[in-house]
Amino acid sequence: MVSKENIQMVIGSEEYSNYIAEEKLVHRAKLLIDNLTLDGDAVHINGLVRFNGGVVPLQLDGKLYSSREQSDGIESYVGDLKENNDSFKVLHFKIKTNDKADTSLISTDLRNTANIKLYLQDKKGDMFYFEEKLNHLNIDTSKITTDGSYVDSLLDGNWFEQILAPAEPHKITNEEIGPFSANPYIKSCSNVYYSKAPFGVDVAEFYFCPKVEGNIVDVGKAGNANWTSRLTVAEHVRVNGTTTNGIEQRYKIGGVTSGGTQTLGTIAAGQNTVITSRLIGGVYKKSTSEIKANWPVIIGLFTKNVPYYAAGKSAYNVLTSISYNTTTTTVNDTIYQNVVGNVSGYSYKIDKSAYLYDAGHYLDLGLLVSTWDSKQKSNESTTAYINWKFDVSFLGSKVETLDWKIPVNYKVNVN
Prior knowledge:
20-stranded mixed sheet; mainly beta
């Protein structure tokens, strides 16, 4: 048991090993299990918690889910459990059924064993944690079956965020990539977003780097050229220096819980170039759902009547001249839609509640463009501008807003 006032010092400290070895601020407690039943995804536990001469009855019921650690080869399940006597809040319940090393235990001598752990918090805020080998409890795990879905990460690998103060986000140096003036382009954050969170004897480290990539190609006298732009992230979480999927990334593109900037992507074409079709797509999250297709966006356009911008104006100026619709448009990421009119700038905004946080999340903007007037100058050199504007957040709070404007040179009306 660790008392409420000592949780941050003990559980959230890299000095935890010293506290447990000296039995300072960490006090012995016992969990006596009368009955533990596992059937499909259902779990039921009856028992007693003994501490400091007192006894508290314990009755737990709930549902099992696949742990995120399974993608690391660790056969484990986590539970969303309720204590029926209202004596405890269940912070974390996990059963691991193989012997692969598990870096999410407080007791280091159990890490290479099949084990069970239960972390509780009482009404006073004190934390009780219990860990034991499965074969010491004679528990039959053969009847466990789940549908493969995940529970909220706060009940899985990120359990410690329920009781520890959040780590402070900051940046570490990263050599910036691009932007290039060649046709393909990529831009990433010049500093990697980073935070460190000790819990027990482990240290979780969060690394996060938004990036934009794509391709702007030359535009021929006839036909269409395919332009692409993608906003995505490079990220990973490490525990004790080893990359893991068991703990979910806490940095996000978007995801600001109050206020925040609406994520938007824009491509503005250069001289004598007109946009004929567009494709919008991607994968992002909204609340706990992953959104892959048929999602609403706000469309923005810039139109003009002649192939050339007025003197002193360029594609860069278009980025601040987009006119956005007042209603949403539902988009499908497998279909190019015709763009009507003399459009040289195209943009879209996604819902404020949407966010991206792992390498499988991205937002795409694809355009088919053509030469506006083939009678104009041949092989003309000009510049397109890519713009992605978005918030970087950490645990729901905005870290900063990035507004990337990327110039890419190309030729139009090419023979």
